[in-house]
Amino acid sequence: MNIHHLVVGMLQVNCFLLHDTNTNEAFLIDPGDDAPQILQLIERTGADVSQITNTHAHFDHVLAVPEVQKATAATFHLYEAELPVLGWAADATEMWLGRKWGPPPAIDSYLSPGQALRLGETEFEIRLVPGHSPGSIIYIDHDGRRAWVGDTVFAGGIGRTDFPGCSYSDLIEAIHTQILALPDDYELYPGHGGFTTVGRERNTNPFLTAEMRAQALRQVKE
């Protein structure tokens, strides 16, 4: 499987084209904006994009979905709890970027935690990681020892929790139980910024190491 990466939009979203060269099928993760740039990549690789599989539905991660769908006939998939977030995307686009967008794309089917997505010989496990948004999900390729984690955890940071539907406590719990539970060598592909690993974030991320210390102190007191 070939992994192609673009940084798109004013908010610099990491968009990924996952291309199985044996079958030519491809998945697109988080086409946040700059649809012409994304479509150029698809044309250059010759990939047949069958699915757009988003980590979540904040406006900066979905703006290019309608144009890419129109050009490729790809289906669009989210976790069901993201439907209200997708519904708010047009208002958020106007508020943040000062431009009109919408209507939001229709969701062809909802993804489920524990579900396995297959792209050629590669299987992706879906895990629910609420907190940055109510229905954020991550995609884990265990054979490749890597995960696409959206805006849950970044290199040295964590996702914002001051938007509607966010929860700091849910986010911290989800990071610990669903991401830091992976082995240290798993590579993490966040929704913004540079790539990292589970071990690096476990040992150096100030939000997570501080939380770990707080948890340890709570356990001692109990």
Give an overview in words.
This protein is an alpha/beta fold. The protein has a single domain (2-221), classed as 4-Layer Sandwich (Metallo-beta-lactamase, Chain A). It has helices at residues 35-45, 59-62, 65-72, 83-87, 89-97, 168-179, 198-204, 206-221; strands spanning 2-8, 13-19, 25-29, 48-53, 75-79, 109-111, 116-119, 122-128, 137-141, 146-150, 153-154, 157-158, 187-190, 196-197. The strands form three sheets. It has a six-stranded mixed β-sheet with strand order 1-2-3-4-5-6, with helices on one face. It has a six-stranded mixed β-sheet with strand order 7-8-9-10-13-14.
Q: How do the helices and strands line up, and which of them pair or pack?
A:
Elements: E1 2-8, E2 13-19, E3 25-29, H1 35-45, E4 48-53, H2 59-62, H3 65-72, E5 75-79, H4 83-87, H5 89-97, E6 109-111, E7 116-119, E8 122-128, E9 137-141, E10 146-150, E11 153-154, E12 157-158, H6 168-179, E13 187-190, E14 196-197, H7 198-204, H8 206-221
Parallel strand pairs: 3-4, 4-5, 5-6, 10-13
Antiparallel strand pairs: 1-2, 2-3, 7-8, 8-9, 9-10, 11-12, 13-14
In the predicted model, the low-confidence regions spanning at least 5 consecutive residues are none
Outline = globular
Radius of gyration: 17 Å
Number of helices: 8
Average residue pLDDT: 93
CATH architecture: 4-Layer Sandwich
Structural class of the helices, strands and pairings?
A: alpha/beta
Please give the CATH class.
Alpha Beta
Report the CATH superfamily: Ribonuclease Z/Hydroxyacylglutathione hydrolase-like
Helix percent reads 25-40%
* CATH topology value: Metallo-beta-lactamase, Chain A
Q: What portion of the residues fall into strands of 2 or more residues?
A: 25-35%
The helix-strand sequence is EEEHEHHEHHEEEEEEEHEEHH
Strand order in space, largest sheet? 1-2-3-4-5-6
Number of domains: 1
Largest beta-sheet characterization: 6 strands, mixed
Query: How many DSSP E strands?
Result: 14
Note the gap between the termini: 48 Å
